[in-house]
Design brief:
Length: 193
């Protein structure tokens, strides 16, 4: 019966859905919002409101997802929040036993390292020195530098990590794509997901 029907005020429907997801007690629903956001073509002010809320969410899982989404979606307005997270003392690592974090959010990595990866996606040049200082602390720092053009830092374990670290792997793949395969292409061929 609704075939061919199109709502007149689509943005209002998205606003209602957005408010429902943002106010949800379930972090998975707040994370779902980040996956839907690019497809909804919302006004910039609404996108700002969503990222601001989720980058400062009470859940570390949601904050990490928001940081990665901001980087992947080239959301430059997240730079201040990402820099604050990066410059804070190394944030608490997530609990090892939390499967959701391990499979979706690069388990075992601090929020500072996740912020570094997002900054790498954004190619935020002022952070390069900090990333170089921390490159031995966590593989996310090396891959963040690779995203910024230092693809010689890519290693086989970035593509085929033992813990099936999808954010790390996808960022490594993106680094090879950005340099048009000039470096890391043989490693990329080993990537399986």
């Amino acid at each position: 019966p609704l075939e061919g029907w199109a709502p007149v005020e689509t943005p209002k429907i998205y606003e209602v859905a957005l408010d429902t997801l943002l106010s949800s007690e379930y972090e998975e629903l707040r994370q779902l919002l980040l996956r839907q956001l690019p497809a909804w073509n919302l006004p910039a002010a609404t996108v700002d409101r969503v990222y601001t809320a989720l980058l400062h969410d009470k859940s570390p899982n949601v904050r990490r997802t928001a940081m990665l989404a901001a980087g992947r979606n080239s959301y430059a307005a997240a730079l201040p929040a990402l820099m604050t997270t990066l410059n804070a003392a190394e944030a608490q690592k997530p609990p090892v036993g939390d499967i959701r974090i391990e499979t979706e959010l690069a388990g075992g990595h601090s929020e500072a390292a996740i912020a570094a990866l997002a900054l790498g996606y954004l190619h935020h040049e002022p952070v390069r020195g900090v990333l170089k200082e921390r490159v031995d602390k966590d593989p996310l720092y090396a891959v963040a530098l690779a995203l910024m053009g230092e693809t010689e830092r890519l290693k086989e374990e970035h593509f085929a990590s033992k813990d099936n670290n999808q954010p790390l792997q996808l960022a490594a793949v993106e680094a090879v794509i950005r340099c048009k395969g000039a470096q890391g292409f043989p490693l990329l061929l080993k990537y399986k997901q």
